[in-house]
Write a structure and sequence with these properties.
The protein is an alpha+beta fold. The chain is built from seven helices and three strands, in the order βββααααααα. Helix 1 packs antiparallel against helix 2, helix 4 packs antiparallel against helix 5 and helix 5 runs antiparallel to helix 6.
């Protein structure tokens, strides 16, 4: 999850293991197995082909994306933007890069551009709570408190890292409105 104070993803090693009629994905952090996902081979369907495509290109995209995150942490926003654009040139549907472009636009005060990016992320992944939080902030900066509140309240339905910051922003909106 991306947080304003921690704008990067933690990466994990995934190992695909086939055993009889089941396929499992083991998740490792360093040398320690931290999770496992199993399914019957016959039920995988399109997931199998998506994994094949992802496995081939994921490392390249992730390395470029993480380079952008590192540049962003150093406040080299133009260079970070170039890295995210490089990822999107290779895969226009790479949601983390679209999201970070929105965050960069938000940082630079380009609220309409940020709004477009966050809406694009939500269209491609309606469950993306990061985009929901940033949409709320963007609407707040644009003066649309109703839309801001609507997006921020969605975060309170889920237990996650944006729940408290969303409550804080809703409180700020209410204070600004004299409530």
């Amino acid at each position: 999850v991306l947080l304003p104070e921690k704008p990067y993803y933690e990466t994990f090693l995934l190992k695909k293991v086939a055993a009889g009629d089941k396929v499992a994905v083991e998740i490792y952090s360093g040398d320690k197995e931290i999770g496992r996902y199993e399914r019957e081979s016959a039920k995988i369907g399109t997931y199998e082909s998506e994994v094949a495509v992802t496995d081939e290109f994921k490392d390249v995209y992730q390395k470029i994306f993480l380079a952008g995150i590192e540049l962003e942490k150093q406040r080299l926003y133009r260079d970070a933007r170039r890295k995210y654009m490089e990822v999107l040139d290779k895969d226009p549907k790479y949601i983390p890069a679209i999201l970070r472009l929105g965050v960069l636009a938000l940082i630079r005060g380009q609220f309409e551009n940020a709004l477009d990016k966050f809406k694009e992320v939500r269209e491609k992944d309606p469950r993306n709570l990061d985009a929901c939080y940033y949409l709320g902030l963007t609407y707040k900066f644009l003066g649309n408190n109703e839309k801001a509140r609507e997006n921020l309240w969605k975060l309170n339905l889920h237990d996650g890292p944006f729940q408290v910051p969303a409550f804080v922003e809703i409180g700020k909106i209410d204070m600004d409105e004299g409530n």
